[in-house]
Amino acid sequence: MKPQKTLKEQLPELREGQSVALLQELHILTREGKLNQDTRRKLKQVYHLVQFIEPLLAEVLNARGDVTLADHGAGKSYLGFILYDLFFKSRPVGWVTGVEARAELVAKSQALAARLGFERMRFLAATVQQSLDHPDMPARFDVVTALHACDTATDDAIAFGLAKQATHMVLVPCCQAEVAGVMRQHKALSLARKPLAELWRHPLHTREFGSQITNVLRCLQLESHGYTVTVTELVGWEHSMKNELILARRDGGMRPAQQERARERLLQVLDELNLQPLTERFATATEPA
User: Fold this and answer.
1) Which of 62, 59, 63, 79 lies closest to 71 in space, CA to CA?
2) CATH number, domain at 64?
3) Residue 150: C-alpha distances to residues 9, 76, 118, 155, 263 (Å)
4) Is 94 helix (H, G, I), strand (E, B) or coil?
5) Rounded CA separation 142/53 (Å)
6) Which residues pair with 71 in a beta bridge?
7) How far apart are CA 224 and CA 265, in angstroms?
8) Is residue 194 located within the same domain as residue 159?
9) Average pLDDT, rounded, for the chain
10) pLDDT for the residue numbered 240
11) What are phi and psi of 123, to 5 degrees?
């Protein structure tokens, strides 16, 4: 009989001092301490995202002496709990706020945080839009995350980050459908006027091209508000097809002329693709960096 693998062998990403109880509560580990293979893919995505977020948290903490993070579309709050366990737990300051529309998931997260003694975690049962003006939310957040926030929820997370003057936004978009729907409505007009409309003539291409353009518009929107944007992969495509990671940093690196150029390009893309109905969503007025 082969000896049972150690937890570290099963989960190489495991760090010293990481809470095994948390991993069991999240059903990443069984009660016997074995890795639950059904959650392995989800955990890999979260760990990769944590590697991007931790340096941002440390940067803000060093600059301000405190740091706040809002996680939108939190679901079961895998990301928030693991970030708290790995980063916030060992420090006397900092807050993690999970925003999730499903009240039953929020109640479970609140109960889990209480059991684990994660005192600086809070959860809000609300949509992203509702959270913007919620009295329990602070006026500012340093880091805003959204892991697989579906369709326009990613746009709402961006709007939240802009309103809360976030220094960093970390976004993994999912299921972008709104832009593709508008493209379908104007497909005949586009095909009549633009040869490049062949790129989205077929329904499958409309969906895929619409998804791509959605993220292009988001990047231009962020740049028009003074954010420097990086787009990369989260994990290998074998782990997730929703794999695009948008990292936005607002640190004064974007000059006003660059912001205005991004806004011009944004409006040009909307016009070129007959997406004018989405102007209000993506091309809101810019603010000085």
Assistant:
1) 79
2) 3.40.50.150
3) 34, 15, 28, 9, 25
4) coil
5) 11
6) 98, 145
7) 9
8) no
9) 88
10) 45
11) -135, 140
Vertex 209 angle, CA 205 and 211, to 5°: 120
**Strand runs labelled E in the chain:** 68-72, 95-100, 121-125, 143-150, 168-174, 228-233, 244-249
> Over 90: is that where the pLDDT of 86 sits?
yes
Residue 288: band (very low, low, confident or very high) from pLDDT cuts 50, 70, 90: very low
Count other C-beta atoms under 10 Å from residue 31's C-beta: 7
Residue 39 domain-assigned (yes or no) = yes
| Residue 228: Cβ-neighbour burial (10 angstroms; 0-12, 13-18, 19+) | middle
Question: Residue 17 CB: number of other CB atoms within 10 A?
Answer: 9
The structure tokens 């893919």 sit at 41
Two structure tokens written together for 260? 């205005």
How far apart CA 249 and CA 230 sit, in angstroms, is: 9
Q: What is the pLDDT of residue 2?
A: 65
For CA atoms 169, 174, 179, 182, the dihedral sign is negative
Q: What angle do CA 213, 218, 223 make, to 5 degrees?
A: 125
Helices vs strands, H then E, count in the chain: 12, 7
21-43 pLDDT, tens digit each: 888 888 887 777 777 777 777 77
Report which of 98, 99, 88, 32 is spatially closest to residue 61, judged by C-alpha positions: 88
pLDDT tens-digit map of 232-256: 988 654 444 567 899 999 988 889 9
pLDDT digits (tens, 9 = 90+) for 150-192: 878 899 999 999 999 999 999 999 888 899 999 889 888 888 8
pTM for this entry: 0.90
- Domain boundaries, position 157: 16-26+33-175
Instruction: Quickly state the pLDDT bin for 289 (edges 50, 70, 90).
Output: very low
- Domain contains 265: yes
User: Kind of pairing, strands 95-100 and 68-72?
Assistant: parallel
Detail the DSSP E strand segments found in 30-87. Answer: 68-72
